[in-house]
Amino acid sequence: MPDFDAIVVGGGLVGAAVAYGLARRDCKVVVLDEGDIAHRASRGNFGLVWVQSKGFGVPEYQRWTRRSSDDWVEFSRELLEATGVATGHERPGGVTLCLTEDELDARRRKMEQLHLEAGETRFEYDVLDHAAVKKLLPAIGPDVVGATYTRYDGHANPLYTLRALHAALLQLGGRYVPNARVDAIAAAPHSFGVHAGGDTFSAPRLVLAAGLGNKELGAMVGLAVPVRPVRGQIIVTERVEPFLPMPTLMIRQTVEGTIMIGESREEAGFDDATSPEIVHTLAERAVKTFPVLRHARIVRTWGALRVMSADGLPVYEQSSEFPGAFVCTCHSGVTLAAAHALHYAQYVLEGALPPELARFATRRFDVRAAA
What we know:
The protein is built from nine helices and 18 strands. By secondary structure, the protein is an alpha+beta fold.
């Protein structure tokens, strides 16, 4: 008889959300986590719950992202009631600020594309000139020419969210095993034996949610998961007086008052170090955007590795060779946390992914390779 109803490999935001979603459905679940030596994207996440930059040319992604953003209100409330840990989630809407007319024109075209592709689900947005942005965010500088706004956007604290998910999982009887790097998987349809941390765990369901580790793990259950690291660098300032009532794509103020500034996208392999050049570029744009930041002291910088697929979209798939084995991979672990907990976990229990997630199956990479 198996030890558990489901095994989740990966204890970051993606794995913890799926595991919590399974546990809240009376599933006996264990999370196997490599620990702090893992290239954990959760600890370096910028914290946006963001819709307006997702799904250009892929309306399925835009709908999935927006569904998760809609669900975040209930998701956050549920975690707070269960654990007493506030995720810091707020949904005041969000803006993407532009410093040139070319930037604003490009954003306008992108937003119209999302609107047209949304079809009956509709995608509402506003394009704001400098004066309109100034009314919304009085602290902007003269270099801001305009912005795009949607009411769907918000932000949360990734670390508090991760803490709440782990606490809720344990309250529901889930098990968390740290320092448990997976060495081998004995796979058969609806039967998996996972060797990790010197022990073997068995279950009829297996969810691979180990981020960059999913490439190696997927091969053990017949899944090709082409993910690669993309580095992002972030700046955090000292606490300052509140001036930013809503998040922007690259700058947000936390509930504690600190300012987070990001985000770079660098092909740097598995190097998660920071660089003076990128930090300078980020800080320079931030000061142009909000001159009030000119005298704010930087207290920390860090680099972290995004989990990026070949086309930038999530990877959701059940193994055809070993049914019961699923992969759940994305670079938007905060934004999609609610969808993973409230919906993806249900699909795992049902044993099938719905048609609306077919766009994210691994076979899309075979088509690209053949072309």
